[in-house]
Specification:
Layout: H1 8-19, E1 26-27, E2 33-34, E3 36-40, E4 46-52, E5 57-60, H2 61-78, H3 92-102
Antiparallel strand pairs: 1-2, 3-4, 4-5
Length: 105
C-alpha cells in the first residue's frame, strides 16, 4: 500500500483529527490511562501543543507531525509500526495509541 506525501494541508488535517479526540480516554501500551487537550494562551488563543494529563507533559504540534510522518514511512517500508519507540519522538508513548485509534498505525 502506498501512502501519500505529507503537505501543509494534510498537516492541518492530521492536527485537526487529533484535536477532535481531545478529552477522550486512551491507554498507553502498558495500560496507563491518559487524556489530552490543546494548550491555550492567557488570551484564549490555541497554541500548537498538546497537554497530556497523566504527567502534565506537552507535545508540540511539530513533534506530532514528525511522528505522523515517521509512522507513514514505517507503514510503507515495514507494513506496521510495532510500538511507540519506533516513532522515535518525545511523547511517543502517548501519540502511538492515538495514532492507532485514528488508523494511522
Amino acid at each position: 500500500m502506498k501512502y501519500h506525501i505529507v503537505t501543509d494541508e494534510l498537516d492541518e488535517e492530521i492536527w485537526n483529527r487529533i484535536l477532535a479526540h481531545t478529552g477522550e480516554a486512551f491507554k498507553t501500551v502498558h495500560g496507563l490511562p491518559f487524556t489530552y487537550h490543546q494548550k491555550i494562551s492567557r488570551t484564549g488563543e490555541p497554541l500548537g501543543e498538546l497537554i497530556i494529563d497523566r504527567k502534565k507533559k506537552t507535545i508540540t504540534r511539530n513533534t506530532v507531525l514528525l511522528a505522523y510522518k515517521k509512522a507513514l514511512k514505517l507503514m510503507e517500508t515495514e507494513g506496521s509500526v510495532s510500538g511507540p519507540k519506533k516513532l522515535g519522538v518525545f511523547g511517543a508513548s502517548y501519540l502511538y495509541p492515538v495514532f492507532l485509534e485514528l488508523g494511522i498505525c
